[in-house]
Structure formats: structure tokens, C-alpha cells
Amino acid sequence: MGILIKDILAVLPGGVSRKCTLYIDGERIHSVDREPENFRADRIIDGDRKLMIPGLVNAHAHAYMTPFRNWADDLDFNTWLFKKIMPMEDALSSEDAYWGSMLACMEMIKGGVTCFLDMHMFPGCSARAALDLGLRAVISRGLSGGAEDPEGGLRRLREALEEIREFSGAPSLSFMLAPHAPYTCDEAYLCFVAEKARELGVGINTHLSESLSEIEDIKKKYGCSPVELYDRCGLLGRNTVAAHCVHLSPEDMDLLARRGVSVAVNHASNLKLANGIAPVTELQKRGINLCLGTDSAASNNSLSVLRELALVTLLHKGTSGDPMAVTAAQGFDMATANGARALGLQGKAGEIRPGFLADLAIFDLNQPGITPLGDPVSALAYSGAGLSAHTIIINGRIILENGEFTSIDPQRVYFEVEKTCARLGIS
To answer: What is the number of helices (H) and of strands (E) in the chain?
Structure first.
């Protein structure tokens, strides 16, 4: 399918914002401002009063948890997780998880996201939801296990491998293995998962150094930090995405930098659960690839990457006293190119370039909260948190058009999620 996007203001590589005309041929961007020979436009999009950016990347999410939004709030982390969320997860069915994932995907698309990294508990559900909506995704079944639950650990890993086999032919899906956290996996199990990931040639998606209680428990059990534990288990590398990383020593940060780990910052979730603020400026100084995640709707309670962009560019100015601590341009890279790199899409997505995947978000500028526009990147960082996308293109397909989904009935999704909540008694 050929798509022509005419005279649109776009954020191009290097943070350059200017009007251009984009030619999409099939799943990729063919050219910018240069009409290809024999190009045929099946669709033409008028770019007047619109802004186009590379699709946002949500580098840490739990899509199935959307039914828990606005329910388990104002709690400390351990109470929230072990007393409220985990028991409710046990009450979910696979069908519940599918509809929750559908709702999450809808929310992300409306917010300009074209790709997300998911950690789930229900094989096939987030993969099916992403495929049904046309959203690009990196899927990982959350893994927990060890000497106290050997059968469960092996079962979860089998489910992860079966899911990879089942959906491996889908061009918009890829996979990682996801040891949940150092407090839900013992050392032997972590080593086992790391070895299996090397055999399969897939990356690692994990929670790491999220809370003070995690740091204390791991130090007491293993005599080292969670980062040091993961390193000796072989889990840290260039294809590892470590979510949160709130409580890090200088030695931990140096180790993450040496191993080339990407860190997914989840400020809203960490703030709400009173876990602290990730040391973004210190991680930046070490050259660590930083990207943005929302975590789940149960802990955020939003799946807006634009809100995470606002937080990462504002918080560190206030805490450091330096207005340049995290600039709008740096935050925008975290939300786009850095996220693509973390998810194994470096050189394929995250920028508007010829040959890159046509994963694009278009916003209507006829909105009071973003008028006057000024610098587009600054506008997205500091006044864009409430924006909804006008058009979303993923893999060269129009997924959202004039703010409406092209392939699903949203009312059915709302109905099914409300039915889940009613059954669980949390509506």
C-alpha cells in the first residue's frame, strides 16, 4: 500500500522540525520530499495543521492489568503487590487478560504509541491483542520460580517457549524472556533463564532495583545488590531491558553501563508507590541507553508515554536545580529512538528515515492546550501529556484514522472489561 503524507510538520532525525512530504511504500518509509519513480498513492493524508513524529515506544508495560486501574491505590509497594494485585491476578481468566490487553493497546495507540514491551502472565493474550489492533509488540511471559516452586518455574518457561513458537511468524511481534524480579526468582532459576535466552538468541526483560525492600532482601540473601546478582547470573547485556532501576549504587550504574543494559524509566509508577526516583542524570552521564515505560494501569494509572516524557523532563530539573538536567530533546529520544534501540529495533524504527519501518504518530494541532505550538519537541514534553493521536500508522497500515480505530469495535472492549471488573467486584 502506498501512502502519501503531504506538507506535514515533522520531527526528523536530530530533532530537526520542518514541513515535509513523506512517501510510504508497503511497510517502510520510502523517501522524504523526493517522489519515488512510479509511486502510486492509495491513500493521501493532508498534513495541514498536523504534527508527525516517529511512533512512541512504551518500554515497560503489563497490558493485561488494565482492569485494575484506579483500584489498588495509596498503598505501599509490598501491600499493593502481595496483598492486592497478586491475589486479584489469580482471579483473572485468559479471556479477562485478553480484553484487558485490548484496552491497554487501545489506550497506547490513542497516546501515540506504536510499539510496546509487555510482561504478562497469560500466554497468547497480549500477542493476540497486539495483532488484532495492529500494534507492534515485544512479548514476554513473566517468569518466577526456584527451589521453592520448581514445577511452577518450569511450567512458566514452557509457556514462554510455546508462545514464541506459536507467534514467531508474525512480523510485528518479537519476544524476550522475562525473569520477573530477583525477589521472585532464585539464583539457580535466574541462571537457567539466562542460559535459555542465550540458546534462543532473545533478550531479557525484567524488573530490577525497584524498591528499598528489594535491595535489603537481596543483600541479606546473597550478599550483593540486585544488579550484581543479575550480573553473576549472566542476565545483563546489550539485549537486556531493566525496568525501574530506582535504587542503584555508583558501582551498580557502572556495571549496567559496562554491560550495555537499557534502563526503562517508570517515573509515574515509582512515584505513586513511593519507591523513589530513578537517578536519570547519573545514568545519562554513564552513557546508558534510557527509555520510558509506563508500567501497568494498576500502578500508574495511565499508559501515557507523553506523561512519562513530561515527568522525566521536569522532575530532574527540580531535584537537581539544573534546568538542562534532562532536556526536551533528550526526553523525546528516550520516548522514540532509545526505546526502539532497547527493543531490538535500532536502525529499523524510532526515527523518520527512508528505509525505516512506517511506524508514525500524527497529532492534530487544532487543540487549545498545544496552541501556539512553538518548538514541537518542547510542546510534546511540556504541554503534550493530554494529547490524543489523530492518525497512527504501524508497519505501513493505518491503525487509527481521524481518532477512530480502523479494525475493532471499541464499545465491545469497554463492555468486556467492565464485565470482568463486575465479576471481580472492583468496578
So the answer is: 16, 17
Check pLDDT > 90 for residue 386: no
Rounded Cα–Cα distance for residues 190 and 295 (Å): 22
Region 2-55+354-405: CATH code: 2.30.40.10
Q: How is the chain split into domains, by residue range?
A: 2-55+354-405, 56-342
Range list of β-strands (E), 232-348 = 240-244, 262-265, 289-292
Q: How many CA atoms lie within 13 A of 304 on its CB side?
A: 18
- pLDDT category at 208 given cuts 50, 70, 90 is very high
Consecutive H or E run containing 179: strand 173-179
pLDDT bin (cut points 50, 70, 90) of residue 101 is: very high
DSSP characters for 358-371?
--EEEEES--GGG-
Percentage of the chain surpassing pLDDT 90?
A: 96
β-sheet bridge partners, residue 12: 16
Measure CA 391 to chain center: 19
Q: What are the helix (H) ranges across 1-93?
A: 77-78, 86-91
pLDDT at 1: 82
